[in-house]
Amino acid sequence: MELTHFTFDVEDGVAIVLLDRAGEPMNTIGPAIFDDFTAVIDRIENDPTIKAVVIGSAKKGNFLAGADIRFFETLTDPDEGAAVIRELHALFVRIEALHAVHDKPVVMAIDGACLGGGLELALTGSMRIATDGKKTQLGQPEVQLGILPAGGGTQRLPKIIGIAAALDMILTGRSIRPYKAAKIGLVDEVVPSEMLYDIAVERATASIGNLGESRGAAVKGFLAPSHLQSLAVEQNPMGRRVLFKKAEEAMLAKTKGLYPAPQRALEAVKIGVEQGNAAGYEAEATFFGELVTSPESRALRGVFFASQMMKYSTGISGSAEPKKVSKVGVLGGGLMGAGIATVSALKAGTTVRVKEVDDASAGRALAHMSKELSKQVDRRKLTEFEAEQIANRVTATTEWTGFQNADLIIEAVFESLDLKRSLLADAEAATSDGTVFASNTSSLPISEIAADAARPEAVLGMHYFSPVEKMPLLEIVVTDKTADWATVTAVEFGKRQGKTVIVVKDGPGFYTTRILVPYLNEAFFLLSDGATIEAIDGAMERWGFPVGPLLLTDEVGIDVAAHISKIMLDAFGERMAGPEMAQGLLDDDRQGRKNRRGFYTYDDQGKRGEVDESVYQALGLGPRRVLDESEIHGRIALAMINEAARCLEEEILQSPLDGDMGAVMGLGFPPFRGGPFWWIDQVGADGIVARLDALAARHGERFEPAGILREYAESEKKFR
Ligand code: NAI
Predict the structure, then answer these.
(1) Given phi > 0 = left and psi -120 to 50 = alpha, else beta, which region is 619?
(2) Distance between CA atoms of residues 538 and 633, nearest Å
(3) Is 337 touching ligand 1 by the criterion CB < 6 Å?
(4) 585 CA to centre of own chain
(5) How far apart are CA 75 and CA 70, in angstroms?
């Protein structure tokens, strides 16, 4: 038997089959390995000396990461997609039958990513053993790519862990760690990585003829009374109906009906439960064909591919060696600085020295980090010991001591040009020639901060987003004086912090803040045109943003938004002018969530309530009226998209791909629309220009389409 993608050995009656996809760093599943898989199953079925099977991976720390997504791009016809799924079903049914029909138990030996099609393969086994390795995780993340688990996942998972637990995994796409998997009955046993195959073979051997008794010990949680109780609920039709209804409501609250994949995944589970496996599998195949060719899935895959590509991008066109960063200095340990210090120590593994104005502030920065580390310990992502080691790498001070050997200084003090300039001068004096100085300013041009720098080649912007621990984007801002070595050093370091990094050219607001300001301004214009706060925020949420623009203003801080708006107005003039509203809000002592007064009401703990109706009066706004929802999201979204196009035209952006990733990862631009440029391509540049022209005729120059949009409309070119 000639195999390209598997190794196959038989030892004492146990076949050990290891997936090892040729020429790839990771195991993925797709038609390319179907022939090999068939040959493996033929051999096991027909070889009487094989009594049991262990299926695992020859790639360390990677069981099977999921479907081969590149293959999806070749599918244009829903029927073709469905046909591939039927082939996969046939294969998986045969693996399942190795035990049920041929009496040869199959033990799945899982180390590393066991996701999507990987978990679906594992579900066909008689037993699953997972390692406790750091990389081991199990999940069905398909909905994140706009498709559904179609390799039997919607059918087998509910049978193994119960409907409610299965829906939770399938509809959210969340993956789980091995101990949690054992607790919910998804794996039978968790073992140390080094012992995986010894134990798997032992269990396989012991299973021959008596599988039931040899199931691993870690099913205690699964047999706990509370779990059995919820399974009992699922046994009765009434209980199930309530369960599905609740799951659907929770899903729609999140997706707002904009993402078809979770909807279809839920349907497939339901069909299987109510009508049996055959109907369930058929639903998976049909829905897969429909979803994989949908614009939503294409856009989500576009975002996924882009984030993969960006892992390899250096951010510069030539080549330069990054400097190895092992010591980081953080100036200002407030909201942003404390977060930056945390991810530097935690993810990038550096030592960190934080400088603050007084002991109390320094203490707060360290306390922030401790809290984050405790969360990681609670979630079992870190051991107590690891958390302690990380915490020991971070120190805080009010002096300039201990910065001499820093490889990188990240400044995150108040947004004031004078303050930032003076800190740069102090930092240059306290550090050495090879130290990179980065500012986390959200709007001030880096060239202005660096105007008097002694080493301007080592100065750049590292613009993080709040909360730093969660937000995936890092926008690196380079001036025409920034040296390539400094840029690649920052890019490399940002990746080590776990960030998706875009490199943009310097200018007021760089890219992300620059496109955010017209977006927020337009929300204010709509407010003065009579729209209600609910209508404005609701329209943008229903268009796909995680929060509406006015709620976002409350979150960012009305004072901060006003400050940034002013900087942008000074830089770009009339086009960036919003209605005179921010001052009115500030005069009425409204700063947003931080002082519990903004567009919304807040309780003493800062928990948000309803819209604060007194805002209208405070701003002297007249009676509210109903505006068409499409006018609201059209105006707000186009204001942002038009500015994004300008950033490309002025080469602030290196590419449309960067622009899309910056907007999706940094500002919550709806991922299923793929980003501003992806969306322009989707609608057609001519359509966008026509809408902007119409808006400019009614509302003035601020909607004048960017030159590059007209150019693309005329030549019918695409951005991506
Ligand atoms: P913050 O007010 O929470 O923190 C600023 C910290 O800097 C304070 O703890 C303060 O004590 C400290 N500080 C002031 N002068 C200092 C000095 N001379 N030496 C050392 N420390 C000093 O402010 P936040 O929100 O962390 O913002 C910091 C910077 O990050 C600003 O430039 C802001 O524009 C930028 N930024 C903020 C974002 C946000 O969402 N809050 C997002 C992205 C960037």
Answers:
(1) alpha
(2) 9
(3) yes
(4) 34
(5) 10
Please, is 600 exposed, middle or buried when counting C-beta atoms within 10 Å of its C-beta (0-12, 13-18, 19+)? Answer: buried
pLDDT for residue 238 is more than 50: yes
Give the start-to-end residue ranges of the domains of the chain. 6-293, 327-507, 513-652+684-715
What is the DSSP code (8-state) at residue 673?
Answer: G
Question: How would you label 174-202 residue by residue, b for 16+ Cβ within 10 Å and e otherwise?
Answer: ebbbbebbbbbbbbbbbbebeebbebbbb
Has residue 221 got a pLDDT over 70?
no
Q: Does the beta carbon of 100 sit less than 6 angstroms from any atom of ligand 1? A: no
Angle at 454 between CA 651 and CA 357, to 5 degrees: 95
In total, the chain counts a number of residues equal to: 720
How far apart are the CA of 460 and the centre of ligand 1, in A? 17
Q: Rounded to a whole number, what is the largest CA-CA distance in the chain? A: 86
Q: For domain 6-293, give the fold.
A: 2-enoyl-CoA Hydratase; Chain A, domain 1 (3.90.226)
Residue 556 CA, closest ligand 1 atom number: 40
Q: What's the pLDDT score for residue 234?
A: 83
The model's pTM: 0.92
In the predicted structure, residue 216 carries a pLDDT above the cut 60: no
Q: Looking at the predicted structure, is the pLDDT value of residue 214 above 60? A: no
Tell which atom from ligand 1 comes closest to the C-alpha of 441. Answer: 32
Over 60: is that where the pLDDT of 222 sits? no
Q: Atom 18 (ligand 1): residue with closest C-alpha?
A: 357
Buried b (16+ CB within 10 A) or exposed e, 682-719: beebeebbebbeebeeeeeebbebbebbbebbeeeeeb
How does pLDDT run across 642-655, given as a tens digit for each residue? 999 999 999 999 99
| pLDDT band, very low/low/confident/very high, at 218 (cuts 50, 70, 90) | very low
Q: In angstroms, rounded to a whole number, what is the distance separating the alpha carbons of residues 639 and 519?
A: 6
CATH architecture of the domain with range 327-507 = 3-Layer(aba) Sandwich (3.40)
Average pLDDT over residues 158-176: 95
| 435: Cβ contacts below 8 Å, ≥ 6 apart | 406, 407, 408, 409, 427, 458
The tens digit of pLDDT for each residue in 246-260 reads: 999 999 999 999 999
pLDDT band at 217 (very low <50, low <70, confident <90, very high): very low
Residue type, 258: L
- Cβ distance 118 to 63 under 8 Å? yes
Sign (positive or negative) of CA dihedral 115, 117, 123, 124 = negative
Residue of 679, 686, 688 lying closest to 719 (CA atoms): 679
CA of 332 to the centre of ligand 1 (A): 6
Separation of alpha carbons 548 and 708, rounded Å:
28
Cβ of 356 below 6 Å from ligand 1? yes
Q: 513-652+684-715 domain in CATH 1.20.120.1630?
A: no
pLDDT at residue 657, rounded to an integer: 97
> pLDDT value at position 380?
82
Which of 577-589 are b and which e, b meaning 16 or more Cβ less than 10 Å from the residue's Cβ? ebbebbeebeeee
- 495-537 pLDDT per residue, tens: 999 999 999 999 999 999 999 999 999 999 999 999 999 999 9
Residue-level pLDDT at 264: 98
**C-alpha–C-alpha distance, residues 517 and 702, integer Å:** 12
